[in-house]
Amino acid sequence: MIIIKSNQDIIDGLSELKLTDPSLIPIIERTPNVPLRRDHNGFTGLVRIIIGQHVSTASASAIHGRFVEAINPITPENYLKANQDTLINIGLTRAKQTTITNVANAVLAKALDLQTINKLPEQEAIGQLTALKGIGPWTAEVYLLFCAGHPDIFAAGDLAIREAVRHAYNMEKRPTENELRKIAVMWSPYRGIASRLFWAYYGNLKGEKKGQPL
User: Fold this and answer.
1) Are the CB atoms for 209 and 35 separated by under 8 Å?
2) Cβ atoms of residues 159 and 197 within 8 Å
3) Residue 19 region by backbone torsions, left for phi larger than 0, else alpha for psi between -120 and 50, else beta
4) Residues with pLDDT less than 50, the chain
5) pTM of this prediction?
6) SS3 track for the chain
7) For position 208, what pLDDT does the model report?
8) pLDDT in the model for residue 206
9) 135, 167 in Cβ contact below 8 A?
């Protein structure tokens, strides 16, 4: 598998998608900028995604900022050394504290290798992450897409992607997660590029609704 590392990988992947599924051509042409959106690989990146679960972007940014200040560098060892008061002051809920602890212990025990998980097939990679309590499919898919650069992950459960596909294909209703996963099969092994495409397409839709140009 070719790991998604650069803007050229995006360009090449979009070219392949045009050949794989010509129905994507007008969507690609309407979405001139498909961002790479890569973040830190490994423990640091996964922690940031866990922090962002179920909170606004602004709240996630504030909590992550305090996390970086309190636990620096961000390593499993340093996190496990932090006391309860520090974690509470950062703004981590008990559930998120537990999830990050589970990840830290798994990494240190070598039960989870975040550096090479991007080389595993989709279901195996997702399965290793979701085996940890507190990590669901959305968190696993977002980590694999934007931190690990996995080339063949499609975030079918993401509401923005479901709405983007509904609009792009003029569907009466948003496709369900299962329906969208079946649709996305045809985009393999470039589903990581397709996910980015529909997120960018959705961003353009939001801009249109605000009266902004595409």
Assistant:
1) no
2) no
3) alpha
4) 210-214
5) 0.89
6) CCCCCCHHHHHHHHHHHHHHCHHHHHHHHCCCCCCCCCCCCCHHHHHHHHHCCCCCHHHHHHHHHHHHHHCCCCCHHHHHHCCHHHHHHHCCCHHHHHHHHHHHHHHHCCCCCCCCHHHCCHHHHHHHHHCCCCCCHHHHHHHHHHCCCCCCCCCCCCHHHHHHHHHHCCCCCCCCHHHHHHHHHHHCCCHHHHHHHHHHHHHHHHHHHCCCCC
7) 61
8) 82
9) no
- pLDDT in the model for residue 209: 56
Q: What domains, with CATH codes, occur in the chain?
A: 7-38+152-208 (1.10.1670.40), 43-146 (1.10.340.30)
Q: Note the pLDDT of residue 57.
A: 87
In the prediction, which pLDDT does 92 show? 96
pLDDT at 27: 97
138 vs 35: CA distance, rounded Å: 19
> How many C-alpha atoms does 113 have within 13 Å on its Cβ side?
8
pLDDT tens-digit profile of 54-86? 899 899 999 999 999 999 999 999 999 999 999
| Token pair recorded at residue 169 | 């294909």
Radius of gyration of the chain (CA): 18
Residue carrying structure tokens 């240190």: 108
Tokens 């997660």 appear where? 177
Type of residue found at 5: K
